Amino acid sequence: MKIKYALSVCLFFAVIACLAGSKAVADETEYLAVFMEGKKVGYAIETRTVSGDKVTTTEQVSITISRGGISMTVEMTETSIETTSGEPLGFEATQKLGAMAMKVTGKVDKQGKVTLSTTSMGAEQKRTLQWPQGAVMAEGLRLLTLKKGLKEGTEYSVKIFSPGVMQAVDAQISIGPEQNVDLLGRVVTLREVTTTLIMPGAGEVISTSYVDRDLRMQKNVMPIAGLQVEMVACAREFALGKNDVLELIDKMFLASPGPLNNIAAAQSITYNLSPVKGASDFTIPSSDNQEAQRLGNGTIILKVEPVVAPAGVKFPYKGTDAAILEAMKPTRYLQSDNERVIELARRAVGETKDAAEAARKIEAFVAGYIENRSLSVGYASAAEVAASRQGDCSEFAVLTAAMCRAVGIPAQVVAGVAYVDDFMGNQGFGGHAWTQAYIGGKWVGLDASFKGGGRGGYDAGHIILAAGNGEPGDLFNLAPTLGQFKIDKVTVEKK
What we know:
By secondary structure, this protein is of the alpha+beta class. The chain folds into 2 domains: 5-249, no CATH class; 263-494, Roll (C8orf32 fold). Helices cover 19% and strands 44% of the residues. It has helices at residues 5-20, 138-148, 236-239, 322-326, 339-349, 355-369, 382-388, 393-406, 448-452, 472-476; strands spanning 28-36, 39-51, 54-67, 70-83, 88-97, 100-108, 113-120, 123-130, 155-162, 167-183, 186-199, 203-211, 217-224, 227-233, 253-254, 266-275, 290-294, 300-304, 411-423, 426-439, 442-446, 462-468, 485-494. Strands 8-7-6-5-4-3-2-1-14-13-12-11-10-9 form a 14-stranded antiparallel β-sheet. Strands 15, 19, 20, 21 and 22 form a 5-stranded antiparallel β-sheet that branches. It has a 4-stranded antiparallel β-sheet with strand order 17-18-16-23, with no helix packed on it.
């Protein structure tokens, strides 16, 4: 059971590093140490090169964390290629999550058409998309920053395209006063720059950077998923030097007001949620399985009542709803067109023609198929899980979703928190991932990880925070919510 904290941090740093540095000198390299909860956990490297009328900017982030005593390193590299006037030409993103690696390259033509190529496990996927109107990458942002300057009180908005999350992020930038800032023992006068990243449907993440007069970031402080995360400019030797050990298991849990006994027997559970001290506003989405009601005092009443899949629904899905059709397509993490995934799906479903029965069979199949419930896997795709047969909750979720799509049942990967009685000594609501399948006009929850662990599957002890195609960007959107709320009261209604 986990939420991918390190991946979320890497994604944010790739965007923040892009936001804050002018990198005005060609062939320049800058090194920064990454800290979480005061412990050095990794590094970031920023480079900028100019060749003719082409500018190449690279952001590399590496973070090592521990979960249950098992160390895992997450590495991400984003490269943007632009003209000297800031027009996008192409990009590249490489993600190494534990033993798994994935590479995405994109080329942008003059009409804004983006040709994408995704490579994982030797297989290549190709697709096209439209460049987000008005979005910039590193050089375009650098030029805008130079134009706006560092006068206190200056404010402006910008849309930043991040290759790592394959989406454009809206940001609001505010220039603050000069301050004396401690840089690992050096006290330097720097300008404060506040960046508010707006996560669609999830809220905001506020990042505070401190830049020198050349607009180069020297320090960044940012709360992510309930953790205090910092990035500090330093010498290469320190940045790449030895890391501390940060254990995340005990930081993944929300306390429960009391034990939830026999949770499988619950018809519904109503949760009273409120912001933690010092937290900004938080958002909990409503869905077919949960309804969130916001009260005037900042609290949210959340009722979770799992949908029961109707019998008699045929598959594959034959409707015309664009959003549902999107949940049937193969993606870079849900390779429902992969031969191995297709073969497993057909084996699981057998001769059944009923969508609800097919989804339950896939859930049960994945519950038994993954043999090694390993915390050492960073974030694997469905094809990688089909080959390795190892992973934890997110690997169960991506394989279940991809197998559903392979037989024509729309499916998504869901991220949130779920109740457990005991996980490595922790009781409460921990970060978790599962699946939902679209059957008979409703999204139905499936949890192969819990089913494989003897829990029974999806139940009212699950709180949804985000859903999508299993992309890292889905985790990116969790950051404004995780760590921002607590559970004050739980009311269980039995069946």
